[in-house]
Specification:
alpha+beta
């Protein structure tokens, strides 16, 4: 009697099913990675804005002024009013009164980042960090969101005395 050899291997159907399962796992992983990347983009933008606000605050507190724009001469009555953080223009700039702005510095945030600044649910377009008295003209809550990530926000709070704090991560609701 002749013995037939045992054939071992995979059928075509088994190979197709295995490849399909692998593609499903890869697509789920990619979707999770894309969302993680969007969340990190928003956190990075929030930390950048917080540092920019601290820069405006520091410049105001030290009285940084551009004497080419402002009258800094001996006996001058012109002094720096402080530094604005303009959320609609996405920049900080110094001001020495009478509409004399100087040293515009862009936030450098992506156009996908939306900035909403409010005080008691009323929109605020800009705040002024003052050197005398120390603080801001309008305490605000700033909420950053990413157009592609609608359910996550980065919250920055600027208090009346100029203290700047953040949510230290993403939150699900922001006023």
């Amino acid at each position: 009697m002749k013995k037939t050899p045992n054939l071992y291997g995979f059928t075509f159907i088994e190979v197709i099913i295995s490849i399909a399962v692998i593609f499903i796992i890869i697509s789920i992983t990619f979707a999770g990675y894309a969302r993680l990347n969007q969340r990190q983009t928003l956190i990075s933008a929030g930390q950048t804005l917080k540092n920019i606000l601290r820069d405006a605050q520091s410049r105001a507190y030290t009285g940084e002024t551009d004497c080419n724009i402002c009258d800094c001469g001996v006996g001058s009555t012109s002094t720096s009013l402080g530094w604005y953080a303009d959320f609609s223009m996405k920049e900080i700039r110094g001001n020495c009164g009478a509409g004399n702005d100087f040293s515009n510095k862009n936030f450098g945030l992506s156009n996908d980042i939306t900035i909403n600044a409010t005080k008691n649910s009323v929109p605020v377009t800009k705040i002024l960090f003052r050197s005398s008295p120390l603080g801001v003209d309008t305490p605000v809550t700033v909420c950053l969101s990413l157009n592609l990530l609608s359910d996550n926000y980065y919250k920055i709070t600027v208090g009346p005395s100029g203290e700047i704090s953040d949510s230290a991560g993403l939150i699900s609701a922001c006023p």
